[in-house]
Amino acid sequence: MILFYLLAAHALCDYPLQGDFLAKGKNHKHPLPGIPYYQCLLAHAIIHGGAVALITGNIYLGLAEFVIHTAIDYGKCQELYSFNTDQFFHIACKLIWVYILKLI
Predict the structure, then answer these.
(1) Side-chain half-sphere CA neighbours of 69 within 13 A
(2) Residue 1 lies in a domain
(3) What is the DSSP track for the chain?
(4) In a domain, 61, yes or no
(5) Using one digit for the tens of pLDDT, what is the confidence trace for 44-99?
(6) Which of 34, 60, 80, 97 is most open to solvent, judged by the fewest CB atoms within 10 Å of its CB?
(7) Per the domain annotation, does 31 fall within a domain?
(8) Does residue 49 contact residue 69 with C-beta atoms inside 8 Å?
């Protein structure tokens, strides 16, 4: 059940809640004029981290999501991997969070 909520929150946070502004603004290779890319990248990642913390009830998983989501999206903007690979990494994180929850 938690996995479903994490995946639904991911879809919500990565698509409608990200919007065009954050999607474009977080890209350091093509930043929006006058907008520091890292502010958009960190804002996007904290939305994801907050969603994970709220759903799991675990602030540490939320913080881990924030850090890892930031790194994954930065790598995608560096063109180190494709959009599909980016999404795979994000979904893999959700599976890892569920696994960790079962251990604690």
Answers:
(1) 29
(2) no
(3) -HHHHHHHHHHHHHTTTTHHHHHHHT-TTSPPTTS-HHHHHHHHHHHHHHHHHHHHS-HHHHHHHHHHHHHHHHHHHTTSS-HHHHHHHHHHHHHHHHHHHHH-
(4) yes
(5) 999 999 999 999 999 999 999 999 999 999 999 999 999 999 999 999 999 999 99
(6) 34
(7) yes
(8) yes
Given a contact cutoff of 8 angstroms between Cβ atoms, the answer to whether 71 and 56 are in contact is no
Contact (CB, 8 A) for 45 and 73: yes
Contact yes or no for 10/94 (Cβ under 8 A)? yes
Q: Residue 12: pLDDT band by 50, 70, 90 thresholds?
A: very high
How many domains does the chain divide into? 1
Angle at 41 between CA 37 and CA 47, to 5 degrees: 150
Instruction: Write out the residue range of the structural domain in which residue 41 sits.
Output: 7-103
Distance between CA atoms of residues 90 and 81, nearest Å: 13
